[in-house]
Write a structure and sequence with these properties.
Elements: E1 5-6, H1 27-40, E2 45-47, E3 57-61, E4 76-87, E5 91-96, E6 106-111, E7 113-119, E8 125-131, H2 132-145, H3 156-170, E9 180-181
Parallel strand pairs: 1-9
Antiparallel strand pairs: 2-3, 3-4, 4-7, 5-6, 7-8
Length: 184
């Protein structure tokens, strides 16, 4: 099942998502639907709030970055109730975009390495040290679970320059090549 992507201005994108219980109904099917939706929308990550579900869960597949970032090769995960345990002091900028903010791409600074814990679709716990593009994609999706989008991480001047465009988007003035939805 392909879900519509909730667009900037939708209230679900600003809520702190709720933990997923191990007995969540049809969890594996939901994860599969999230991947299907992400691929259909040409994304590399998708958080449950982006499809209207206020749940602490996201899917990621960084393989499309593997030509330039070899660590992305085969990095495909379902992350349930994730946590960031440690962040490196080293940071780097990368031009990010987001399915919920169509047409906007900006340089975002994030830690280059993170230590994370999450559960997969079988509710098996994983602890991983991530770096490079894998750390980047994980952190981007993790932000969605706390009610943040990547534009929140921009320098004040960049936020000011984007303000009008984001206001228009929140009123339904945007273009996207995938199915979208906006709910206040």
């Amino acid at each position: 099942m392909i879900y519509p992507i909730y667009i900037y201005g939708s209230s679900v994108l600003r809520k702190v998502a709720e933990e997923v219980a191990p007995d969540y109904p049809e969890l594996k099917e939901f994860a599969s639907d999230m991947f299907e939706t992400m691929y259909e929308s040409d994304g590399v990550g998708l958080a449950a709030p982006q499809i209207g579900k206020s749940l602490r869960m996201f899917v990621i597949d960084a393989d499309s970055f593997s030509k330039d970032y070899p660590e992305g090769k085969g990095f495909k995960r379902v992350c349930i109730n994730p946590e960031i345990l440690e962040r490196s002091d080293d940071t780097w900028f990368f031009n990010e975009g987001c399915l919920s903010v169509p047409g906007v791409h900006e340089d975002v600074e994030r830690p280059s390495e993170v230590k994370v814990r999450y559960f997969d679709e079988n509710f098996v716990e994983h602890i991983e040290d991530l770096d490079g593009i894998n750390a980047r994609v994980f952190q981007h999706e993790f932000d969605h679970l706390d009610g943040n989008v990547f534009t929140d991480r921009l320098a004040p001047i960049r936020k000011t320059l984007l303000k009008g465009r984001l206001q228009k988007m929140s009123k339904g003035n945007y273009k996207a090549a995938y199915r979208c939805k906006q709910v206040k």
